Amino acid sequence: MLSVAKIAPGQERYYERSVAAGIEDYYAGRGESPGIWTGKGAAALGLDGVVEDGQLHTLIQGDNPLTGENLRRRHPRARTITVEKIDPASGERRRERKTLRPVAGFDLVFSVPKSVSLLHALGDEQTRRAVNEAHTAAWQAALAYLEDEACVVRRGTGVVHREYGDRFV
Fold first, then answer.
1. Distance between CA 134 and CA 103 in Å, rounded?
2. Among 133, 163, 159, 8, CA closest to 75
3. Cα(74)–Cα(122) distance, rounded to whole angstroms?
4. 59: closest CA among 43, 72, 76, 50?
5. DSSP 3
6. Number of H helices, E strands in the chain
7. Digit-coded pLDDT (tens) for 1-55
8. In the prediction, which pLDDT does 30 show?
9. Contact predicate 60/47, CB 8 Å
10. Structural contact between residues 96 and 83, judged by C-beta atoms closer than 8 angstroms
11. Exposure pattern of 12-48 as b/e (b: 16+ CB <10 Å)?
12. Do 107 and 5 form a contact (C-beta atoms < 8 A)?
């Protein structure tokens, strides 16, 4: 299963704080497993292995975590717009202010069904290894597909202009 969440500038600190201290903590439900660098973009930047403390923040700010090289412009500021809402039951219209925050990235979480988690938890060493290898192969194939088919951004004020990328970090 794939869960996708937007990451606004500053939210990356949540990810850095919520990493489990070790594998035992992760399986006991006391934190998340550490992130790993993956994707064609990570490889192009020389990023490999476990995401170290502060590296995600550096990347979200637009700099290469290894070299400090600037990779892009800084994020635009949040802006407030007015939108019209319509109550579907009464048809009443009202205006509401909404804050639009820039999107710094997306968090993709590839998870397995509970039955697979149980197979991993209760299986012997060979079974756990097979589950790990199958899960790794599955999320890597899914990420490669997304890099090829869904690496698209919209740019421009009031104009929908699509730019196609070729890699994720």
1. 32
2. 8
3. 47
4. 72
5. E
6. 6, 6
7. 899 999 988 888 887 877 755 555 555 566 677 788 999 999 999 999 988 888 9
8. 63
9. no
10. yes
11. beebbeebbeeeeeeeeeeeeebeebbbbbbeebebe
12. yes
- Average the pLDDT over 53-70 and give the result: 92
From 88, 82, 94, 105, select the one nearest 14 (Cα to Cα): 105
Answer whether 32's CB lies under 8 Å from 22's CB.
Answer: no
Nearest to 76 by CA among 94, 55, 99, 58: 99
Q: How many residues does the chain have?
A: 169
* Residue 17 confidence (pLDDT): 79
Tokens in use for 92?
């009443």
List the structure tokens of 155: 């740019």
